[in-house]
């Protein structure tokens, strides 16, 4: 769990914060639903 969270933290940093990260995740989810 901790390794997962630290990895997620790195992803959040690369997306310049939670807003960018959440937007990217939501985009991926809508793309997957469209398949």
Describe this structure in words.
- The protein is mainly alpha-helical and 35 residues long.
- The chain has one domain.
- The chain is 86% helix and 0% strand.
- It is built from 2 helices and no strands.
- The longest helix is centred in the C-terminal third of the chain and has 17 residues.
- The mean pLDDT is 75.
Task: Give a summary of the structure in a few sentences.
The protein is an all-alpha fold and 35 residues long. It has two helices and no strands.
Query: What is the mean predicted local confidence, pLDDT?
Result: 75
In terms of DSSP E residues, the strand content is: under 5%
Please give the domain count. 1
Give me the Rg, rounded: 11 Å
Q: Distance between termini?
A: 30 Å
How would you characterize the largest beta sheet?
none
Supply the number of helical segments.
Answer: 2
Keywords:
mainly alpha
How are the SSEs placed, and which strands pair?
Blueprint: H1 2-14, H2 18-34
């Amino acid at each position: 769990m901790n390794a997962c969270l630290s990895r997620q933290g790195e992803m959040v940093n690369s997306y310049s914060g939670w807003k960018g990260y959440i937007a990217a995740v939501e985009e991926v989810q809508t793309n997957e639903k469209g398949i």
